[in-house]
């Protein structure tokens, strides 16, 4: 999720800014936003579902997420059609509480006209093969409908309620990193989810990062009710800004649910992989930029055709980050060196040289490499093995360093054609006791 505040310019060309309490829900779609402005007690789709907003769980660049209570059953027996896309609904809701991801007007339009894949991918993942062991570790949709707001239509995606993401769980820990056993459990379940996406759904996730891996407890309705009673949902003080809104600006405060039932050693953790906004077909080749910079695969950086192997590269970076509490690649930026330049430098320093064919066929290789395959703007290299990178933090026991490094090295194979699949990694010795 996004940082808790965002600044917006009051007038075009004006230096004055307004700092929003959270997402800028008061701004229209033409500014790049277009959120549905909800308040506590608001009822979504009142005629059919009557979902009452009881808490805000968080927000991102294309949506906000709410805890809601259904007051009616979703009894739609035939599909509802909107802009030639079919909405999806179960016969009823199984819990007193559900999570509702409300997409912005712009994101909804992107889903409708095929520019954003989240809705299409979510429906595919939900329906493809519930018997696959990775299915339970992928977010699925309980219900899908359209809510009309001030600026236009908003897709509303109803899912089970999940807990906090891995970034938040790490931040809660005193030393800000997971144990070896907890890391193995999280990674194994994430690989199960990827195997389902890659082999059954033929999808590349494309946005693996700690914030998209959620703790998935077996929530009990009464536990949520007690927590809301003990820690009531709230809103910020109303803001007056006539240049942005004729009415007082009321923003609901993000209040994620706690980690109900999670044991201190995280031995019972179950995860759910979320956010299909960057998914791509695994049956096509892609060359467009994708993935978070710190977890971006080499083929993506240089514009070499990429597929499911990019998710495996991200797994390698996640293992290091979970074990140590810091990203594997320590990036920097100067007037002459970009983040991508420093990322390529770190890849070469810690993993090794680029395979020649990646550079030969990379559509963006000339942005970074000269004719001899040498980085243009980086002249100094300090090679350091994965083992040494793990060792310098003095976190892992010496016996844990080599096995962890071996697993990370498999994931961070420079040649995507030689990188193991999720299914192959699930058989790795390092995960045998997960």
TrEMBL record:
Matches recorded under Pfam families: Pkinase
Top EC group: transferase
PROSITE patterns associated with the record: PROTEIN_KINASE_DOM, PROTEIN_KINASE_ST
InterPro entries with a match to the protein in the record: Kinase-like_dom_sf, Prot_kinase_dom, Ser/Thr_kinase_AS, SRPK
Catalytic activity: L-threonyl-[protein] + ATP = O-phospho-L-threonyl-[protein] + ADP + H(+); L-seryl-[protein] + ATP = O-phospho-L-seryl-[protein] + ADP + H(+)
Metal-binding is among the record's keywords: no
GO biological process: regulation of mRNA processing; spliceosomal complex assembly
Chain ranges of the Protein kinase domain: 51-431
Keywords: ATP-binding, Kinase, Nucleotide-binding, Serine/threonine-protein kinase, Transferase
SUPFAM superfamilies: Protein kinase-like (PK-like)
One of the record's GO cellular component terms: nucleus
One example GO MF annotation: protein serine/threonine kinase activity
E.C. number: 2.7.11.1
PANTHER family xrefs: PROTEIN KINASE DOMAIN-CONTAINING PROTEIN-RELATED (PTHR47634:SF9)
Record's protein name: non-specific serine/threonine protein kinase
